[in-house]
Design goal:
Number of helices: 9
CATH topology of the largest domain: Udp-n-acetylmuramoylalanyl-d-glutamate--2,6- Diaminopimelate Ligase, Chain: A, domain 1
CATH superfamily of the largest domain: NIF3 (NGG1p interacting factor 3)-like
Number of domains: 2
Radius of gyration: 19 Å
CATH class of the largest domain: Alpha Beta
Order of helices and strands: HEEHEHEHHEEHEEHEEHHE
Shape: globular
């Protein structure tokens, strides 16, 4: 098995040309033709995550968020990115990342989130012009039975394991039709409004954006890591389905950079 075999397995549902022009999905470190026997799957590549890969004798790390976003002028111990690269090379560990190409896949990040919520009749929130049935941003779906807004918030919090959720003012209407986008989905709020949904669930919402719905929908910020965390299971399942004997492990290391302080009343 080569690194390229594993990469191709994932890009079958999320081709690299679906990534946004600012992105850097694909091979980050290593040789596509190198043999691989065990992969560690995570949302982010951190120093602690790489140490876990070394301890578990993994020769491949697969992340959602790219380790390298911008060009590097040197590889020194100055930054965590450079230290990770140095250590990965030293231990002969390849690193590949599947980012916005997986975000933009109909079977990708937002689809998994919608499935976890139990939404039905799914379709893309903002389909691409080139491949509208397969590629685009976000997801829209419906519940079989409408629920109260507070029940929906409780469902989301429990499903993503969050101690709190930020949201706009409650509208007083029941929730049946939902739009969502795992990760930073504020740019697609107007698409959610045009779809006539009751709720838009995403992350990284700025303060003033919570005014935008004007009561037309409930805007919910579930957190970036929290709304994308199931990408790890998605990648693992894709690999196991095509290569049942390949060792693909989901990382135990916590890579969420955001922490919460919950005040006791």
């Amino acid at each position: 098995m080569t690194v390229k075999d594993i990469l191709n397995c994932i890009t079958e549902i999320a081709p690299l040309h679906w990534q946004e022009n600012y992105d850097n999905a694909g091979l980050q470190v290593g040789d596509l033709n190198a043999q691989t026997n065990k992969a560690l799957i995570a949302l982010d590549v951190t120093e602690e995550l790489l140490d876990e890969a070394i301890a578990k004798h993994c020769d491949l790390v697969i992340s959602h968020h790219p380790l390298i976003f911008h060009g590097l002028k040197h590889i020194t111990p100055q930054t965590f990115i450079e230290r990770i690269i140095m250590k990965a090379v030293k231990h002969d560990i390849a690193i590949i990342s599947m980012h916005t190409n997986l975000d933009n896949s109909y079977l990708g990040v937002s689809r998994v989130l919608a499935d976890r919520l139990g939404l039905k009749n799914l379709h893309l929130l903002q389909p691409s012009s080139a491949e509208p049935d397969l590629c685009g941003a976000g997801m829209v779906g419906e519940f079989d039975i409408p629920m109260e807004e507070t029940d929906f918030l409780g469902l989301v919090a429990n499903m993503i394991g969050s101690p709190c959720l930020r949201h706009s003012a409650l509208t007083g209407r029941k929730v049946k039709k939902v739009a969502l986008c795992g990760g930073s989905g504020s740019p697609f709020m107007q698409d959610a409004l045009r779809c006539g949904v009751d709720v838009y669930l995403t992350a990284d919402v700025k303060y003033h954006d919570f005014f935008v719905p004007e009561g037309r929908l409930l805007l919910v910020d579930g957190g970036h890591f929290e709304t994308e965390q199931f990408t790890k299971q998605l990648i693992s399942e894709l690999i196991r389905k095509k290569f049942p004997t390949f060792a693909a492990a989901i990382a135990e290391t916590e890579t969420n950079s955001v922490h919460y302080f919950v005040r006791n009343k």
